[in-house]
């Protein structure tokens, strides 16, 4: 997934849509959504993953480029923490989809020096992506690399354009990102259905 300041816009829209649908379903059944019964195990494991991402972004913003080994180690560690959280909470079907999507993203990144390949030809026409494009072209982006003839598994790379206003924050996504978005939608619905069921039992 191409990182920009609005890179989570698609996921936010997906989550809000799931919450809206879940709320409507709950109201139809005569109750309000109640998330107090949701149990999310080992969520603290996401903290080191976030810290590593922040360090990588700060390093990148100051013009420092990670070597291939460092990039693989940092991004690999992030995925390990994420997969651990998914494993400890595998009872949620939505997390399985999120895990599959994350695995596809991890796979293409690990096969390309720890960076996500990006179709830069689709970014050249977007003025607001000028800074990000420049970093990629210089090889100074610690998370992305331009697609070329040597790119492995290009079908899993960031090559799919996001339509409409969603593209303002996330102009290109991968198959893995699409699956992650579907998983987030399902996870939010599952949370709401679970809470409604728990409320009915008690």
List unreliable stretches of 5+ residues: 196-202
Tally of distinct domains: 1
Task: State which percent range the strand residues make up.
Answer: under 5%
Largest sheet, strands/sense/barrel: 2 strands, parallel
Q: Strand order, main sheet: write it out.
A: 1-2
- How many helices? The count is 6
The value of Rg in angstroms is: 18 Å
Helix and strand pattern: HHHHEHEEEH
Q: How confident overall, as mean pLDDT? A: 80
**Per the principal axes of the C-alpha atoms, what is the gross shape?**
globular
Helix fraction, binned, reads: 40-55%
The number of E-state strands comes to: 4
N-to-C CA distance = 42 Å
Which structural class do the helices and strands define?
Answer: mainly alpha
Structure, explained:
The chain has one domain (9-201). The chain is built from six helices and four strands, in the order H-H-H-H-E-H-E-E-E-H. The chain is globular. It has 202 residues and is mainly alpha-helical. It has helices spanning 9-28, 46-61, 68-88, 93-110, 130-138, 175-201; strands at residues 116-118, 144-146, 160-161, 172-173. Strand 1, helix 5 (130-138) and strand 2 (144-146) form a beta-alpha-beta unit. Residues 196-202 have low confidence and may be disordered. The strands form two sheets. A two-stranded parallel ribbon has the order 1-2. A two-stranded antiparallel sheet has the order 3-4. Helix content is 55%, strand content 5%.
């Amino acid at each position: 997934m191409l990182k920009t300041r609005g890179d989570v816009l698609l996921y936010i829209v997906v989550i809000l849509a799931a919450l809206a649908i879940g709320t409507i379903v709950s109201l139809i059944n005569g109750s309000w959504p109640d998330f107090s019964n949701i149990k999310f195990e080992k969520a603290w494991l996401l903290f080191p993953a976030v810290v590593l991402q922040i360090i990588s972004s700060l390093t990148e913003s100051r013009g420092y480029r990670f070597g291939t080994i460092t990039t693989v180690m940092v991004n690999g560690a992030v995925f390990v923490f994420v997969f651990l959280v998914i494993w400890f909470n595998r009872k949620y079907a939505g997390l399985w989809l999120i895990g599959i999507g994350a695995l596809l993203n991890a796979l293409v990144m690990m096969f390309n020096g720890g960076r996500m390949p990006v179709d830069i030809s689709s970014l050249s026409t977007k003025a607001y992506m000028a800074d990000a494009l420049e970093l990629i072209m210089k090889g100074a982006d610690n998370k992305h690399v331009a697609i070329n003839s040597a790119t492995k598994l290009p079908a899993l790379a960031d090559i799919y354009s996001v339509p409409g206003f969603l593209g303002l924050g996330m102009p290109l996504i991968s198959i893995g990102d699409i699956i992650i978005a579907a998983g987030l939608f399902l996870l939010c619905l599952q949370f709401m259905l679970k809470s409604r069921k728990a409320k009915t039992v008690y």
